[in-house]
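Please check both lines for our workbook:

___
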Amino acid sequence: MSFIIDWITNIIIFILLAIVIDLLLPSTNLQKYVKMVIGLILILVMLSPILKIFKVDVDQLIAMIHTEGHAEKNVIENVIEQKKTEIQASQRAYILEQMAVHMKKDVAEELMNQYGLTIKDITFEIGREENFRIPDDIQFIEVIVAPDKKEQSGIVPTVQPIEIDTSEPMKRTDEYGKLAMDTASFLAKKWGVNEEKIAVQVEGGR
């Protein structure tokens, strides 16, 4: 008789405890998981007399449920953290992409008028992955520019006598180097960024 009283008492106490836990838990996905575990444990408590007949250790079963539940919780937390990282990465990429679009637009006309160049690509090197601030966390900006094809196509070169000049590649390299430096200085002033943080590469240069 005492066994039955203890059994019923355990069930009542567990139900009351489950109600209190349910009231204290916030309404999240974790609440569903906790309810499932509580339900399984309640079933084991209610079946404890039958399990004892078959010599099944109820405490061991509860411990197994808790261990499996804890492992499942860790998996869920890892998935959530992974999704959070993916969302932050996509937000970061979108912000940088939009920033590059605006930066191109701000200097496009003047860059064409002064240097005959168009910006092909802008890439950023950011100091930190999360909660980065613009422009404080911009460590480096790489800009690829190219001479405007329309302007080049409109120029008809005059025919000159053919002369072999071995210094021509060096002159061209020097010209591209100076153009890249002048362009970097121009962009630094326009964007309000330290010139040392900008590297300009002219397409066709070495």
In short: The radius of gyration is 35 Å. The longest helix spans residues 58-115.
